[in-house]
Write a structure and sequence with these properties.
Order of helices and strands: HHEEHEHHEHEHEHEEEEH
Radius of gyration: 17 Å
Structural class: alpha/beta
Number of helices: 9
Number of strands: 10
Helix content: 40-55%
Shape: globular
Oligomer: single chain
């Protein structure tokens, strides 16, 4: 038990150090290199190689990811060379120290759902798209460690429909098994990330977000069935 906690504490220190590096080097390196550098720093020092399946679409304008762990963002940053604009809860932007990690790269603050908040979200996403960035969202809106994805929130669909974005889902497999702050566990080892086929958002199909949720869940379940260590 003590050794397990020491491993977890080591991972926490690496993650904190990586974020500190991002903040301190942000003005030394052109965006997004400071972010990529810190993400690689964290991933290498916590010994998390990533096995990538599927093909990243070079024209993708929005990534949709399932969310389980604090390492999810670092994994995504290191498996794409795209400049990602993360959509995160507004409360995170106000957290001391960590708020700089999302404010400096000009990520997008998501307020509680309201007409005003959604208008602001759509406007900010358009600004980032015009700058060549890829909107990246955890559509569940929160982490879940159960392996069953929560229903996807409508914000991602509204943005994608508004600008007819090319959307690519990405499924991360059992990242909470590797690192969980909630359970204070850390297991080094290979993580699988799966790029699904990209598609153009079709506002004439009101169910595409739910269909994407079901497709991602099926891919997750099928992949997990082949990894007995996660059971």
């Amino acid at each position: 038990m003590i050794f397990a906690r020491i491993k977890w504490l080591y991972a926490v220190i690496v993650i904190f150090t990586g974020m500190t590096l991002m903040i301190t080097t942000f003005y030394l390196f052109p965006k997004p290199y400071a972010v990529k550098f810190s993400a690689w720093f964290i991933r290498l020092l916590v010994f998390i190689p990533v096995r990538v399946k599927g093909t990243p679409d070079p024209d993708a304008q929005m990534f949709l990811l399932n969310h389980q762990s604090d390492i999810d963002i670092g994994i995504m940053e290191t498996i794409t060379d795209k400049d990602l604009a993360w959509v995160a809860k507004k409360e995170l932007f106000e957290v001391p120290f960590f708020g700089l990690v999302v404010r400096l790269p000009k990520d997008i603050a998501l307020e509680r759902e309201s007409k005003t908040a959604l208008v602001k979200l759509i406007k900010e996403c358009k600004d980032r798209l015009d700058r060549g960035r890829v909107i990246t969202i955890f559509p569940e809106g929160t982490r879940t460690e159960t392996g069953k994805m929560k229903p996807f929130k409508a914000g991602a669909k509204m943005v994608a429909d508004k600008y007819a974005l090319k959307v690519q889902p990405v499924v991360l497999i059992a990242t909470a098994w590797h690192f969980s702050n909630k359970r204070k566990v850390f297991h080094p080892g290979s993580v699988t990330a799966i790029y699904l086929d990209a598609f153009i958002a079709d506002k004439e199909n009101p169910q595409w977000l739910n269909e994407t949720h079901d497709r991602m869940q099926k891919v997750y379940d099928d992949e997990l069935a082949n990894h007995p260590r996660y059971r």
